[in-house]
Design brief:
mainly alpha, 0% strand, single chain, 12 helices, 284 residues, 68% helix
Length: 284
Amino acid sequence: MTDAASGGSRLQHWFDAQRLRPAAPTRAWYGALAFGIATLLFGIRLVATFPATGAGFADGYGTPVIAFEFARGQADLLAIFGPESDPMQVSRLAAMRAGNEGDYLFMLLYAGFVGCGLFALWRELRSRVLFAAIALPVAAALCDAWENTLLFDIQTAFTLGDYSPAMASLPWPVAAKFILLALANIAVGHGMMQLGRRWQLPAALATAPVIAVAMALAVPPAFGWTLGAAIGAGWIGLLLLAAIGSWRALVRKRPLVDFEAPLPRRRARTPDAPPTRRSFGRKR
């Protein structure tokens, strides 16, 4: 109990020291910008790696990889990859495996991007909520890795003509991943709102689409296609914020939020002229 209390006290003192430190540009924006650009470029390449078409899954999924993540039975897998008589089945299976293998690198990139962005926002705003939110993209990447492990097992069993018990566990990491990424976007939007009025519209554009995540998780065959747009909107806003934060830190040598900005100087008041003495009666 004593060790826990002393640890909590040290953490409290550390938070207080961070809150009272002088305003300074944070180099964490450089990391967020670098990870963000890498995430964008590799994400474009990864989308091209996954199969572009399926064998008859619901149009509401949007892409075969989203349909695969929400597969619940053998009929769903046949709608994604096709039966053995389908000449495209082998190419679809190979493309899906290649895409999921590359997805491991994508997990590291987006976790680094969103994590660095939240860390930079915490350095700017000194908010404990933002500091705690740094764990969200890391946890999402871990759920994504768990999901990929299950997908590999399901695909291997399907190739052999068997049913994989991993399909029963698949909904949990899929839902957890998207919920954690949506919460991370909300945290980014919350940080943007604290930056001032000019960031309120970008914050709204970054956070409002996360409503679609709940719709997609509830009815994936109809709204699964919205997941990429809902999460991507927050990432685009964070990438813009990282670019501006990096520019201010590198060029202007100033943070995005300056708690020690000098107050505007007031104009000195000219002393009032002495009142003229009024005389009464006739002038002599």
